[in-house]
Amino acid sequence: MAIAEDRAAPPETRRPLAESPFAKGFQRMVSSPQGAIAFAVVALLVLGAVFAPLIAPYDPIAIAPRIRFEGPSWAHLLGTDQIGRDLFSRVLYGARVALKVSLFGTTAALSLGAMLGIIAGLGPRWIDSVLVIFCDSVRSLPMILFALAVVAIYGPSMNTLIGVIAFSMAPGYFRVVRNQVLVLRETDFVTAANAMGASRLRVALTHLVPNLIGPLIVLIAMDIPAVIGIESGLSFLGQGIQPPDASWGTMLSDGYSYIRKAPHIAVAAGLPVIVATVAFTFLGEALRDVFDPKSGKGR
Amino acid sequence: MPLLEVKDLVVRYPSGTIFDRLKGAPGEVTVLDGVSIAVEAGETLGLVGESGSGKTTLGRAIAGLAPLSGGKIALAGDTVTSRRDRAWKTLRRNVGFMFQDPVAALDPRMRLSSAITEPLAVDAGLLHPISGRKRRRRARELLAEVGLTSDFADRFPHQVSGGQARRVTVARALAMRPKLVIADEPTAGLDLSVQGELLNLLNAIQAADDISFLFITHNLAVARHVTHRVAVMYLGRIVETAPTKTLFSDPAHPYTHALLNAHSPGKPATRLKGEAPSLKIRPTGCEFHTRCPIARDICRREAPPARELGASHTVRCHFPRGHEDLHVEREAKAA
Which of A166, A292, B60, B90 could link B65 by a cystine bridge, Cβ 3.0 to 4.6 Å? Predict the structure, then answer.
């Protein structure tokens, strides 16, 4: 019949279909200057952290009493600290710690929160109520105090740190996932899947998870600065990464002690925290623009 | 035996807070109140009525998407329930459902090839997934059936127009070769030329595969064009069922008459008084008496029974148009 002819796609809409949505999203993310700079800085941080053993000019915990409190020079790009350790090397190894804690902490928080969120959103009402009350209670705990209490019990270590972060951040992911699931499960495409006889597991895997990924990636990027802050804060207080291991927090603590004599130590430790925080925040905002259809640029 | 038989179907939804209920307000809304319809194999039954008359709910109930508070739905002899057991799953193969909003009915993050073949994947089960290649091939075949080129398979829903999305949902509804397709307002939101194309497509599909359609619409012109029989709904009840020709030429229920009048230009419209009453506090007697131009005392007291006026022409009215004598006869009999 006459139906088929005019249904052919206009040629200009055909070409971009070959590109994956991820490639398109990436293009849009780096299309703004903030997004591009944020992405570049984050990429540098990640590369620096991953290849720290190759890049770092000195052993980050090697003591050299002769060159204590040296300012920045070509030999020591960021100078040395109170016992002669190279600050540039320590910053790189500190990035390793910060990113490791962020990565494992948020991943664990995300897995836990998303799983509980999907269960609460799809399961019976009483499970939902129990989980909501539990997660709201966890959210109401002051994070630093809670962390200090846990460290007091289990002792300071990176694993404790990751555990604390996972536990205290999971409710945030839970809330987002649960609310999204409650919205998604009333959509026509989920109802359609139900009408086809799809099980809850299938609905969760084929419809919920793909629609949750976008908002969650944004949330992770936004949360990483907070995690870096917690890690540095606890390490600064002596409850996180333990000396002599390098962490931005322990370095800050050193710098704080000698801020009059050698301010470059505090600067060398504080700058990466600020740069990482700002970069991840901007990256999160750029990602939000990509994933949020209401950001105006359309998909 | 008809393909689909709905008998005295009642659908109630709980409503109001616990405080409303304590104050004595009814705790539920009766959306469908004793609905009976039948669809023969290869037939298109139109379901017309105002918004809120329960058309969509009836369609959803048949698709197993609404809680059944009473009555029975049977498809080819098997009872439909909202319980998810083995029988429910086999029934799903025989019913295709098209939602009102075709774009909302497609997952924005799922390629159309996956969306179209979703019924097949669901039927195969999570443990026996169909390969992506097979699904894409089947999707292209289905796309061809609804007149779309195969490059639509790799698109996302936001990359197609409303009319194309509608065709995609038709393709999905047909994926399992169902015996019955429930089409909820399939022409809504389409401009006239696209509407025409779509209706031709549905007609062609029906002719080829002998599929029955339950065609839910408020558009009488569309109903007239594609249906064999029409059931008119008002406030959760079927008030009149008749072959399409009879219904349009010779409507017996005053509500049907008013609906047709409201849609035919030229004639002076006999406007209905007021709005449809609340489903929560349903009128006594005949539901329509609050707005009926010919209501009498008996209409306020007694619900009219279903009456056969002719070949498969049924009406629920004490005083059907053109058959006013029926009531007199009945009174005489009673006396």
Answer: B60
ipTM of the complex: 0.84
B88 CB near a chain A CB, below 8 Å?
Answer: yes
Average pLDDT over residues A66-92: 85
* Amino acid A133: pLDDT: 95
Q: C-alpha dihedral over A52, A54, A57, A59, to 10 degrees? A: 70
CB contacts, 8 Å: B149 with chain A: 7-9
Residue B105: list chain A partners with CB under 8 A.
188-189, 192
**Per-chain mean pLDDT for chain B:** 85
Tokens of A81: 């600290």
B137-187 pLDDT per residue, tens = 999 999 999 999 999 998 888 889 888 999 999 999 999 889 999 999 988
Q: pTM of the full predicted structure?
A: 0.79
Report the relative pairing of strands B180-184 and B212-216 from DSSP bridges.
parallel
DSSP B77-130: TEEP-SS-SHHHHHHHHHEEEE-S-TTTTS-TTS-HHHHHTHHHHHHH-TTSPP
Q: How far apart are CA B38 and CA B180, in angstroms?
A: 12
Q: Which residue has the tokens 């949020």?
A: A292
- List domains and CATH numbers for chain A: 32-63+75-292 (1.10.3720.10)
| Nearby residues of A216 by Cβ (< 8 Å), 6 or more positions away | A110, A114, A173, A176, A177
Decide if B259 contacts B273 (C-beta within 8 A). no
Nearest CA in chain A to B84: A197
* Partner A contacted by B161 (CB < 8 A): no
Q: What percent of chain B has pLDDT over 90?
A: 27
A8 vs B: CB within 8 A: yes
CA B158: distance to chain centroid?
27
